[in-house]
Hints:
The complex is a heterotrimer.
Chain A: E1 4-13, E2 16-26, E3 31-35, H1 42-50, E4 57-62, E5 65-66, E6 74-77, H2 89-100, H3 106-119, H4 135-148, E7 153-157, H5 165-182, E8 185-190, H6 193-199, E9 202-205, E10 218-219, H7 235-269
Parallel strand pairs in A: 3-8, 3-9, 6-7, 7-8
Antiparallel strand pairs in A: 1-2, 1-4, 4-5, 9-10
Helix pairs in contact in A: 2-3, 2-4, 3-4
Chain B: E1 6-17, E2 20-32, E3 37-41, H1 48-56, E4 63-68, E5 71-72, E6 80-83, H2 95-106, H3 112-125, H4 141-154, E7 159-163, H5 171-188, E8 191-196, H6 199-205, E9 208-212, E10 220-225, H7 234-239, H8 243-260, H9 274-282
Parallel strand pairs in B: 3-8, 3-9, 6-7, 7-8
Antiparallel strand pairs in B: 1-2, 1-4, 4-5, 9-10
Chain C: H1 2-35, H2 44-56, E1 61-63, E2 66-67, H3 69-100, H4 102-115, H5 120-131, H6 134-159, H7 163-171, H8 176-214, H9 219-228, H10 232-262
Antiparallel strand pairs in C: 1-2
Helix pairs in contact in C: 2-10, 3-4, 3-6, 3-8, 5-6, 6-8, 8-9, 8-10, 9-10
Amino acid sequence: MAILELEQVHKSFGTTHVLSDVSLSVEPGELVAIVGFSGAGKSTLMALLSGLSKPDQGRVLFKGKPVEGPSPERGVVFQNYSLLPWLSAFENVELAVREVFSKDSRNAQRERVARYLEMVGLTYAKERRPAELSGGMRQRVALARALAIEPEVLLMDEPLSALDALTRATLQDEIERIARVSGKTILLVTNDVDEAILLADRIVPLSAGPEATLGAPTPVEIARPRDRRAMNHDPHFRKIRASITDYLLETQRVRRARSAANRRVAAESALPVESPA
Amino acid sequence: MNSKYLEIFKLLKVYPTPRGQAVIVKDFDLSVSEGEFVTLIGHSGCGKSTVLSIVAGLNTATNGGIVLAGKEVVEAGPDRGVVFQAPCLLHWLSAVDNVLLGVDQVRPELSKEERRKIAEHTLELVGLGDSFDKKPAELSAGMRQRVGLARAFALSPKLLLLDEPFGMLDSLTRIELQSVLIDLWAQDRKTALMVTHDVDEALFLSDRIVMMTSGPEAHVGEILTVPFPRPRNRHDVTEHPDYYVLRERLIAFLEEQGHGKAAPPPQSAPQPRGLMGFLRGLVPSAAMRT
Amino acid sequence: MNSFTREKLEKRIGLLVLPLIGGAIVVALWAVASSTVATSLPSPSRTWEASRLYVMEPFEKRGELDQGILRFTWYSLTRVAKGYVIAILLGTPLGFLLGMSNFFRASFDPIVQILRPVSPLAWLPLGFVLFHKPEPAGTFTIAMCSMWPTVLNTALGVRSVPQDYLNVAKVLKLSKLKTLVKVMVPAAMPYMFTGFRLSLGIAWLVIVAAEMLTGAPGVGGFLWQEYNSLIYEHIILCILTIGIVGFVLDRMMGLVEKRLRTG
Lengths: 277, 290, 263
């Protein structure tokens, strides 16, 4: 049974129709990547899945039940890390652990925090505050915080797009490894087709907004662990890379042409009508 | 064609720091032919932008020199059009006025109408034909960078300098703008020097790709000649049999350079002592407005 | 390296010497003015002569109205402290309410804006009416006048808490109280401290007026009494004391605030 489902979801902000007729079904243990342009509505989609906002129409289901609000069952990694700047790396993770594992002893809680900081390779920097950490390290803390509450689903909203290429590559490998080891269901939102191919079991393109909707899913049939260098030989890699990119660029082209046509119509109808004297 | 239109000789850039001197770039040599599109690729912080800013005249070399069309470069000038990572538009001017600002400067001999025509034409070429009078705040990040491109090309400079021109954009918008840039560039094939860390961007746009070693003392590692015929479009380029071979070679180079650059050593941050340290321990601090 | 430290040293000397030169120029102008155009203004030397006892024995108590200048300052500071503490205890929660609830803001923001510019001279009589005694009337006035910067800055701080932080709290399902204590208060803290600092400045401004009107012993009371006794030198002494104490208070708060902003 699907663990996370979207059924014909619509969402608008004011007069902007952001998401239109979005349906998706994620199986347990699957890593699904949603790829689309910035501003297409990916973050809106994430907010719906996490329960931070509600759809105008349609349903968001978690294990078959409608999502009523945010819950630690669905951990979120935000694009801009969202660490509390007055707490150290350790305390940031601890805040979450204490809340979710409130019945555990203080020692067990601290042990759990330490274990997840080690998993992301940050034990040596656990006393530092976010201002003293690099962007990559901050995102590692955010990842540790999300993993430490042992969510059933991990939602990642452009987790790496604020990082430089080198750090991004390192963290991609890290996420790949953690996904493989933990077997967690992960939904990753990204604007980078290569990142999606490297990490995902299945890629779902989100068409250019407004009125963005999900396109046909593409399974990624490349053996793991995947190597971003060796993949270049793989005809399957080349094929899906080209087809997903083409599809997304095409949706953007169509959207532009449509809005240009709308503007022309608006301009023409605004022309003064010559009235007989 | 002049095969040494732009020459960079033995470029050295040293910054004094409290802990001695930091050698950013050392022994950097490069010649660019007239009409050639050359890209410097390397990891962030490797010194590629330093080279570009010295060519632009926005930064000075510690040693070595730069000759453009037979003249030594000593300061910034409108003969070199620069496109920065952030388009730096004046937010109170419309798109067309932002472009006009430079055109007015370099083409004072033209009438006001002619200058405006140049600005409007360039904006049309970058796909902003219906947004002349929009202010930067009304444009998306991608559209703002289109204005940035138009502003540089409208000057018809001797040399185009592109410093990670699409680095702030998401990777799909980046692909869109690469096509805009290559079409714009194909109009008159001005000599261009670009800096990027994006392998696909470099392959799509360049005639030659200069791979820079990671700093300190960054220099030219390897040079790759890109064989794709022009005019290019994204589809044909990625379908070219050599595309993924060259792509892999670039990725391999960058990975090797990346591994050489070790992660910062573990160190604990200095803890504040004394009264302020005590106070700081008592009261939570915040640095959120960054 | 050598030229580097030398430059620093020169800069430091400049920072010490230039204010002294500025001060000397002002004293010279004062001396000239007191002997030419404004003959009723006491000269610097006469001011020093008359103030000497009060400055050199700052904590002496010779009589109810004849005490060392720091003793008077201490009285004023304790009075300020009372009013200021009340202002903060009332102003901070009020600020949180204004910042957190749109309903509350719409209802009470106009009233805050109307009460904010009211002068201490207007609050004091109302204090007399309410409390019948000068001491609580003064405290009331200080509290009423100095509360507003804390209220407004706290409200601004609460409204500026990044949505991301609140989302973190929501995803973890933190309770309302925990969200307040663990997320909103620390995030709003730098703004709150700006409010506290401005409030302290106002409280110190108000004390002089309050003491003048109530006749309570303190720097302001001393100033008014010496004016009535025609000892004009002491007016200048009081003005300088008020200025210096205000400056020191502001600097101290500024240091804490800076620590909060950059830490």
